[in-house]
Amino acid sequence: MSLLNEILDYNEQFVEKGEYVKYKTDKFPEKRMVIISCMDTRLVELLPKSMNVKNGDVKILKTAGAIVSHPFGSVMRSILVAIYELKADEVLVIPHHDCGMASVDADSVVEKMVARDIPKNTIDTLGAAGIDIRTWLRGFDDVYESCKNSVEIIKSHPLIPKNIPVHGLIISPDTGKLEVVVDGYAAVEEK
């Protein structure tokens, strides 16, 4: 049985048994915040549990390394929609220790792409079009600096209201302990 069929079989039972009822909520986050977190599998349940967050409380965006790499990319768009359309009043960037993005070797990723039948000339064409794929794929060297950088991109965005606190925290993927790197309330009070 394929993984997709396994999922669909489970889903059919989930719906028939009414399991969805206990997850019903609306689209507005009860705790009025949006979290940008890493897509690491260890955080799927650990992050919300460690923060006392349940279904309906927050908006959670998952991206490799919890990195906001472009001020006009899809992550930033999602943050703006959460603020302006879904009533989020705070933003939390939460990467984690022992993140795979700290050790991503862009050259190795490119080699794996070629090994999986992505033509080398496709990668070269991207470069000719001004896209440095190795820079684009690069992770980070220091999770603290990466967290601060993502917070700064969000906080200094021209479309983010100055009264929105943008926090930076780092979570332990082993214990769920949160460490404050940037207290967004301090920046709002300075304004």
UniProtKB/TrEMBL annotation:
GO terms for molecular function: carbonate dehydratase activity; zinc ion binding. Binds 1 zinc ion per subunit. It is an enzyme of class 4 (lyase). Keywords: Metal-binding, Zinc. Zn(2+) binds at residues 38, 40, 96, 99. Its EC number is 4.2.1.1. The keyword Chaperone does not apply. Its cofactor is Zn(2+). This is carbonic anhydrase.
